Amino acid sequence: SFPSVSVDNERGVRMAVGHLAGLGHRRIAHIAGPQEMSTGLSRYRGFVTAMESSGLQVDSDLVVFAKAFTVEEGLRCTRLLLDRGSGCTAIAAGNDMLAVGCYAALDEAGLSCPEDMSVVGFNDMPFIDRLRPPMTTVRFPHYQVGTEAAQLLLERIAEHAGPVKILYLAPELIIRGSTAPNRG
Questions:
Q1: Cβ neighbours for 89, distance < 8 A, ≥ 6 positions apart
Q2: Considering Cα of 148, then 151, then 156, then 157, what sign does the dihedral take?
Q3: Biggest alpha carbon distance in the chain?
Q4: Each residue's pLDDT expressed in tens, for the chain with a length of 184 residues
Q5: Can you give the C-alpha Rg of the chain in angstroms?
Q6: Is the dihedral of CA 127, 31, 4, 169 positive or negative?
Q7: Whether 171 contacts 11, CB under 8 Å
C-alpha cells in the first residue's frame, strides 16, 4: 500500500549466476542474506531461479544463510561452505560485505580468489574495486533510487491518493578480477 523504489534484486542475482555459469562453474554456492529482510529473500529467490534456468542444481550444501549483511557473517558462512567439502568453485554472495568475508575465509584457508574460487558480490560499494583482486559485483544506481523515492514521495503528498507506484531499477553486472573460468 506504499510507494517504493528498489533495485531488481532477482535480476541482479540472475546476472551474477549467469556470469559464473558462463565461465563454466557448475557448483555455485550462495551466501544468502537474512531471509526476514526483503533484500535477502529476493536475492535468494533470484539465485534459485538463476540456477534452475541455467540447468544447474540448487544443492542445499551450497547455500548458507547469513544472520546479517556483514563481513563477519561472510567469513562464518564461507568457513561453513569450506568445512562441508561441497566442491563449490564459485560463490554468489548476497552483498559485497558478505563477499569481503569470503575473501577473508579463502585467505585463511590458503585458497586464492579467483584461481581456487570465484566470488561475486552485490551493491558495488565504494572501494570494492580496490580489493585484491577487484571484486566482480552487481551495481545498481544508488543515487537514482534516492531521487526516484523523493519523486514518489512528492507525488504522494501532492495527490494524497491514486495508484501506488512501485519501481524496480535495473542492475548492472560489473566484471572485475574476482571471477575466472572454472579450472576444475
A1: 25, 26, 27, 28, 117, 118, 182, 184
A2: positive
A3: 59
A4: 677 888 899 999 999 999 999 999 999 999 999 999 999 999 999 999 999 999 999 999 999 999 999 999 999 999 999 999 989 999 999 999 999 999 999 999 999 999 999 999 999 999 999 999 999 999 987 777 788 888 888 887 887 677 788 888 889 999 999 999 998 7
A5: 17
A6: positive
A7: yes
